[in-house]
Design brief:
One of its GO terms (molecular function) is racemase and epimerase activity, acting on amino acids and derivatives. The active site is at residues 150, 246. Mg(2+) binds at residues 175, 201, 224. Its EC number is 5.1.1.-. By secondary structure, this protein is α/β, with parallel strands linked by helices. It contains 13 helices and 14 strands. The chain has helices at residues 55-63, 66-70, 75-81, 86-103, 107-110, 130-140, 156-166, 185-192, 233-236, 247-250, 253-265, 279-282, 285-288, and strands at 3-19, 22-35, 40-46, 119-120, 123-125, 146-150, 171-175, 197-201, 221-223, 242-245, 269-272, 294-295, 313-314, 317-318. The strands form three sheets. The chain has an eight-stranded parallel beta sheet. Strands 1-2-3 form a three-stranded antiparallel beta sheet. Strands 4-14-13 form a three-stranded antiparallel beta sheet, with no helix packed on it. The chain is globular, with a radius of gyration of 19 Å.
Length: 327
C-alpha cells in the first residue's frame, strides 16, 4: 500500500522575479512524496496564480488523493481523476519517479526516448526600466546565449532595444504576458523585428485569442496562458505558431508529452517553459524538452539557492537530472 505525504516549502528568489503582473521575492512549492515501503517517488508543483491557485489550495488538493494513491492509482487514471494544475503535476511526477525506482528503468526511457541529452535553456530578464534590463542582459549574455525578456506593453520597444545593446550576440525571445491586448500585434511585432526577436509569447489575454484572427505577425506568436492542455489546442491552431508547455499548467509530464505530440501533429512548434521552481520541479520537464524548439526551464537559476543534487546548468545548457534527484 502506497502512502502519500504532502508539504509546502518556501524558497527565496535571487533578488526579485518581476513580470507584468507583479514581483515575487520567494516561491512556495508543494512537494509530494509517494512511498511504498521500498521506494519513494518525489514530485513538485508550483501554484498557478492566474488560475487562483495557492500553495495551500494545491497542497489540499494533493492530500485529497491519499486514498486513491493508497489504492494504487496509475498515471492514466490520474488524468481522469484530477483536473489539470499544479497538484496533479506533483502527483504525476512522484508516480513517474517511484515507477522508475521500482523498475530500474529511467523515466526518460519509460517515456519512449532512446536517450536523453542536455538542452539549451533561456535565461529570463525580468521586466524593469530599460537601463536595468540592459545591465541585466549584459551580465547574463556571457553565460546564457538565449535570453527571454519579460515585457509589459508600454515602453516595450525601449526595453528590447536596451537588452540588445547589452547583449548584441544573444538570441532573444520575449514574453508579453498578455500585455498587448488591444494593441496592433502585427505592428508591435514588426517594431521588434530589427532586434532579432525570434518568438513572442502570449501577446493577448487568454480567452481573447480571437483578436489574433487574421493577424500576420512577422515574428512567430506562442500561446502560453492560452494553452494549458490538449483541450486548448483547437483554439490555438491558426492563431499561434507555437505553444508553451508547462508541467504545472498541463497537470504533469503524462499530459505534457501527449500535448507535445498532438501539438506537433497539428503543425505547432513546441516551447517548454516552467514556473518558478526548484530542480525537482524542472527534472520531468527535461524529458518533454527533448523535442522542443525553444526551452525555458531556468526556474532554479532564478532562486537564491536550489536543491542538492540539482539540475546542472553550464552556459545555459541544462543536463539531464541525476537519478538521486528524480526519475
Amino acid at each position: 500500500m502506497r502512502r502519500l505525504d504532502v508539504r509546502i516549502e518556501t524558497w527565496p528568489v535571487a533578488g526579485a522575479f518581476t513580470i507584468a503582473r507583479g514581483a515575487k521575492t520567494q516561491v512556495d512549492v508543494v512537494c509530494v512524496e509517494i512511498a511504498d515501503g521500498s521506494h519513494v517517488g518525489r514530485g513538485e508543483g508550483t501554484a498557478i496564480y492566474y488560475h487562483g491557485e495557492s500553495a495551500e489550495s494545491v497542497a489540499d488538493q494533493a492530500r485529497s488523493m491519499a486514498d486513491a494513491i493508497a489504492g494504487g492509482i496509475d498515471r492514466a487514471t490520474l488524468l481522469k481523476a484530477m483536473p489539470r494544475g499544479a497538484a496533479r503535476n506533483a502527483i504525476d511526477a512522484a508516480l513517474w519517479d517511484i515507477e522508475a525506482k521500482a523498475s530500474g528503468v529511467r523515466a526518460w526511457a519509460a517515456a519512449g526516448l532512446p536517450a536523453i541529452t542536455p538542452v539549451q535553456s533561456a535565461f529570463t530578464i525580468s521586466v524593469a526600466d530599460p537601463a536595468k534590463m540592459e545591465a541585466d542582459a549584459r551580465a547574463a549574455a556571457p553565460i546564457y546565449p538565449l535570453l527571454k525578456l519579460k515585457l509589459a506593453g508600454e515602453g516595450d520597444l525601449d526595453r528590447v532595444a536596451a537588452v540588445r545593446r547589452g547583449a548584441p550576440e544573444a538570441r532573444l525571445i520575449v514574453d508579453a504576458n498578455e500585455s498587448w491586448t488591444g494593441r496592433d500585434v502585427a505592428a508591435e511585432a514588426a517594431r521588434l523585428l530589427p532586434f532579432g526577436v525570434e518568438l513572442i509569447e502570449q501577446p493577448v489575454a487568454a480567452g481573447q485569442d480571437h483578436l489574433l484572427d487574421g493577424v500576420t505577425s512577422p515574428i512567430p506568436l506562442c500561446a502560453d496562458e492560452s494553452c494549458q492542455d490538449r483541450t486548448d489546442l483547437a483554439r490555438c491552431v491558426g492563431r499561434y505558431a507555437a505553444i508553451n508547455i508547462k508541467l504545472d499548467k498541463a497537470g504533469g509530464l503524462t499530459e505534457a508529452l501527449a500535448l507535445a505530440a498532438e501539438g506537433k501533429a497539428a503543425g505547432l512548434e513546441i516551447m517548454v517553459g516552467c514556473m518558478l521552481s526548484t530542480s525537482l520541479g524542472i527534472a520531468p520537464a527535461t524529458i518533454v524538452a527533448q523535442g522542443a524548439r525553444w526551452v525555458d526551464i531556468d526556474g532554479p537559476l532564478l532562486l537564491a539557492r536550489d536543491r542538492s543534487p540539482g539540475i546542472v546548468f553550464a552556459n545555459g545548457i541544462a543536463s539531464p537530472p541525476d537519478p538521486a534527484l528524480w526519475g
